[in-house]
Amino acid sequence: MAVQRTFSILKPDATERNLTGAINALIEKAGLRIVAQKRIRMTREQAETFYAVHKERPFFGELVDFMISGPVVVQVLEGENAVLNYRDVMGATDPSKAADGTIRKLHAKSIGENSVHGSDAPETAAIEIAQFFSGNEIVG
Ligand code: GDP
């Protein structure tokens, strides 16, 4: 399996509770390298574009409002099988269904305020990374 990159967001519920370091420790313990990282406030337009795939879902408005409610940390993670590895580290979308030791089991507040985002496929990762980082901001 080749080295791969995935896109990650530490969501507003995580930054609000000062969990950036705690979550980064779980990421690094799983063998993923944080090769780019910045703390930003998403604009409504950025959040709507990012989650456009969900725009017909009943929770879309709530999701966008949440993502712009406070700072987020956007990241590029690199490692073997990074996309699936990070999905495993994150745990299930609904924290009540997440496995022990996962970020969402340990830290998520609810199915909406669930602390982290991770890309679902390498193709999506490339699109999501390009939305927030230019090539020279990623240092592998
Ligand atoms: P993920 O890939 O595990 O993040 O899950 P999805 O792609 O299915 O959903 C994207 C994000 O939408 C989730 O991480 C949640 O923040 C939010 N979300 C998903 N389902 C619900 C829901 O039923 N209610 C609310 N409020 N938010 C949801």
Query: What is the tally of beta strands?
Result: 4
Oligomer: single chain
Shape: globular
Radius of gyration: 14 Å
Strand-pairing-aware structural class: alpha+beta
The description of the largest β-sheet is:
4 strands, antiparallel
Helix content: 25-40%
The CA-CA distance between the termini, in Å, is 17 Å
Written description of the protein model:
The radius of gyration is 14 Å and the shape is globular. The chain is α+β, with helices and mostly antiparallel strands. The chain is 39% helix and 20% strand. It has a four-stranded antiparallel beta sheet with strand order 2-3-1-4. Bound molecules: guanosine-5'-diphosphate.
Question: Helix and strand layout, with pairings?
Answer:
Elements: E1 3-10, H1 12-16, H2 20-29, E2 33-40, H3 44-50, H4 60-67, E3 72-80, H5 82-90, H6 103-107, E4 116-118, H7 122-132
Antiparallel strand pairs: 1-3, 1-4, 2-3
Brief account:
Helix content is 39%, strand content 20%.
